[in-house]
Specification:
- By secondary structure, the protein is mainly alpha-helical.
- It is built from ten helices and two strands, in the order H-H-H-H-H-E-E-H-H-H-H-H.
- It has a two-stranded antiparallel ribbon with strand order 1-2.
- The chain is elongated and about 85 Å long.
- The N and C termini lie far apart (95 Å).
Length: 307
């Protein structure tokens, strides 16, 4: 029995593979589930379109980053608006901390009560970050898998599908760092620290101040992780940080009206309110936790008196 067979010998370029045979483009490792879908039907078409009239792959990455930021800006604005509300309430929270300085559980309960009273959602800034994470994971597969980035240079990087090297080390660093230094990764870490400082300097971390310092530790920890990533990805992350800082500075200083923030907070305070089911459960859980802690402390003191 004879079988007719065709051989494809050529680059794993998406359009060529699709034209050669049905579903042959699936051999490109864009990732599984939602990440592969994002790469095939969102990232790749945008990249192909921009590459049609822009010769530099690095400029295409910059424009891709800009498009993502513009698409997410309405959510980013809501996040920054929520942060501005929390910053406006910070003086009240500081007074509360002084009043209940010996009872951190009470400080936490009163802080949540204050947020409800003025209509502030402390988790309001999470959505833009959550929505960007699938894009980050998709790009993690997109850059090394796309042949268009191979040997494509930008600035000091000579191959955007692999890591950039500004210095070779005579020894291997631990934690996956390798024996080289990636400048895109170093600049990403520096801009992440700058963005974290600017974005959190007015935030209140309540009874868990360690969270404030964890945000500064994370970029340093990820230095080794990103040091061997494709420079196209770390270039994207660097551009993303620069645009984040720009958006934050411009929005907080020139777009958001601080006087309007205070007026809105006072207006919400005067409105009649009804607790949501979630708020009631959260309040009940915090009160129960406080009651248990007080009971344990009382039992401990009784034991000491008996001795």
């Amino acid at each position: 029995e004879a079988f007719n067979m065709d051989f494809y010998i050529g680059p794993n370029e998406f359009a060529l593979l699709r034209a050669a045979a049905t579903d042959l483009e699936d051999v490109i490792p864009f990732g599984r589930s939602i990440f592969g879908t994002i790469n095939r039907w969102v990232i790749r078409p945008i990249f192909t379109f921009l590459s049609g009239f822009i010769g530099s792959a690095g400029i295409v990455i910059l424009l891709l980053t800009l498009l993502v930021k513009l698409a997410l800006y309405p959510l980013t604005y809501k996040m920054l608006y929520s942060q501005s509300k929390m910053a406006a309430l910070k003086p009240r929270i500081e007074k509360m901390k002084e009043k209940f300085k010996d009872d951190q559980q009470q400080v936490q309960m009163e802080t949540m009560k204050l947020y409800r009273e003025f209509g502030v959602n402390p988790l309001g800034g999470c959505m833009p970050m959550v929505l960007q994470m699938p894009i980050w994971f998709a790009l993690y597969r997109f850059f090394p898998a796309s042949i268009e980035f191979r040997q494509a240079g930008f600035l000091w990087a000579t191959d955007l599908s692999s890591y950039d090297v500004i210095a070779r080390l005579p020894f291997e660093l631990p934690l996956g760092f390798g024996a080289h230094l990636s400048l895109f990764t170093i600049l990403w870490a520096v801009t992440t620290l700058i963005y974290t400082y600017y974005n959190t300097k007015h935030m209140d971390f309540g009874t868990n101040p360690a969270m404030k310092y964890m945000q500064y530790i994370m970029p340093v920890m990820f230095l080794g992780f990103f040091n061997s990533f494709a420079s196209g990805l770390t270039c994207y992350l660097l551009f993303s940080n620069i645009l984040n800082i720009t958006q934050t500075v411009v929005t907080k200083n020139y777009i958001i009206n601080q006087d309007k923030i205070h007026e809105e907070l006072e207006a919400y305070k005067k409105k009649p309110k009804k607790k949501s089911g979630f708020q009631e459960r959260l309040q009940a859980a915090m009160e129960e936790q406080k009651r248990v802690q007080e009971q344990r402390l009382a039992d401990k003191n009784k034991g000491k008196k008996r001795k």
